Each structure stands twice: as C-alpha cells, then as structure tokens.
Amino acid sequence: MPAVAFLNGEYVPLAEAKVGIMTHALHYGTAAFEGIRGNWNATDGKMYIFKLREHYERMAQGCKLLWITLPYSVEKLCAITVEVLERSGFQQDVYIRPMAYKAEEKVANLNLKALKDGFFCLAVPFGSYIESDGAISCCVASWRRIDDTMVPPRFKLSGLYLNSILAKTDALADGFDEAIMLNQDGHVCEGTGENIFLVYGDTLVTPTLESNVLPGITRATVIRLAREELGLRVEERLVDRSELYVAEEVFLSGTAAHIQGVGKVDHRLVGDGKIGPVTGKLQTAYFDIVHGNNPAYRSQSTVATPRVAAS
Ligand code: PMP
Fold this sequence. Notes:
Layout: E1 4-7, E2 10-13, H1 24-28, E3 31-33, E4 36-41, E5 46-50, H2 52-65, H3 74-88, E6 94-102, E7 117-125, E8 136-140, H4 161-173, E9 178-182, E10 188-191, E11 195-200, E12 203-206, H5 217-228, E13 233-236, H6 243-246, E14 249-254, E15 258-265, E16 268-269, H7 277-290, E17 301-304
Helix pairs in contact: 2-3
Bound molecules: 4'-deoxy-4'-aminopyridoxal-5'-phosphate (PMP).
C-alpha cells in the first residue's frame, strides 16, 4: 500500500500531495513544523511515537508567532498522525513531518495576517540521521546561531533552518560529521539539529534555554534520565567554546539523531575519542524508552498499529 499523507483535511497518497509554486511558505519559509520519529518495535508489531503531544505543543507555539491558525486541537493532530502511520502501514522506523504553513498563493506580500494557512502531515521511512558506527567528529561553525532578536530560535520555523543548513553543509564539505554553533555572544549553543551536552565526572552540563537553543524534547528527556535514572547532576549554564576541548565526554541529543557521541571537536580528541561511559548509558536507556521497551515510560509514547504491510 502506498504511503498516505494528510493534506488540508484529506488523506491522499503521498505521491499526489502537492502544493503550488506560488505558495507563500515556499518563497519565504513561513511555516512551523516538527520532526518526530515513529520507532518500530518488531517484537510487539507497534510503532511508538515518543512525546507526540509535546511536539505538537511546540508547533502550536511556532504557529502563534507566525499568525498561523491551526485548524485542529493538539489531540486531533495526534490522532491525524496515528492515522497517517496506520494507513501507510509502515513496519520500520519512520520520520514524521507535520507542517503548518502559509498556503496563500500570492507573492510579494509580507503581512502574515493577510495570508491563509495550510496544514499537512507526512511520514517517510528513516534510518540513522548521522551515519556513523561510533563517535562523530564536529567542528565549531563559523556561522553563529541566529538570535532571539532576529528570528526566535526557540520554535521550529522553516526559514530559520537556513542558519543550520549553512553550518551543516560547510561542516560536511570540510570533512566533519556535524557542526556545533556558537551564539551571538560566543557561547556554545547547539548542533545544527541537536542540543549539546558535556560530561564532567558525575555532572552533565548543557547550555541554558536562553542561549538561543531550540528547547529540545530529547534534551528534556536526557536531563530527566540523567537525574532520575543515572543519579547525575545536571547544570544548565553558559558554556564556553574551550570547554568543548577539555570535557570528558560530549554528546548531541535530538529526535532524529537520538543521543550521538562526539569523539572529536575541531580535530581534538574528546576523552579517548570513543563513546564515553555516561553517553553510552544514556544512549541505551533512551533507545529503550523510545522503542517502548521501558514500561515506566511507555505512557509517554503514542502507539500506532499498521493496518497493512507497506508496499
Ligand atoms: N536543535 C535544533 C536546531 C533542532 O532542529 C532540533 C531537532 N528538532 C533539536 C535541537 C533537538 O530537538 P528535539 O530533541 O526536540 O528533536
């Protein structure tokens, strides 16, 4: 069965879900979106979607900023997402992309309030976000993370991602796996699609939300896991660039990237360059949770059961 998308009120084959070339969001990035994973659990034949509600709550905040009226409640958006997965019949890990966007087919109009809105939700099969069989190598990007006084980085707004895309593209061209961005005042901010953590002994350190980071759903989960399951201390504070070179461990966190160990920053080894023990424990705990294998956390996932096998 072909994959199904939800587009402006209807379930349609993904291949037929199209928007016109005059769509405002295509010209100006006027959209709020989410990146959500459906984690396939082959043992019980179910798809687990971790913290689905929280993703839509964040998207709703972005919509508020862009004067987009979401046509559905958060509950209904969650139900639509489950329906897309069940109708598509995926039996593998997927990436789910809902987007609320300025759908008006009118160019040269910069008044958000004058433009009609659209919404879609689609899902595609998805494996690893960063291809690597161990710790990755990062550079500090020459592009600074955009500031809240420019375009607020606390929401997932389409146009904002040009900032991440420039940094990521340059990092890959220079032979690194990922870029770490500094903010306007030169403190460590985050990866291009992940939050960042440093490990010192029994303490995790991560930049504050006011450092212009995206308030990551995985970041919040890592903080809770570290405190409650691993008995670690967590400090949210300003982080200097030079700390990246001397921390015992560095890792990135994000829905797409999960928990990704960093083995090198700007060619310098982090620890011994391998996945560190704290990162390893968090990776295992997190992976179990998002695949529905930890009963204590299962209620935080929405479950979809595919109706038919995807073709
Ligand atoms: N920062 C940026 C810039 C991101 O795009 C993402 C991915 N959404 C994250 C951090 C991690 O956020 P989350 O854990 O909610 O996926």
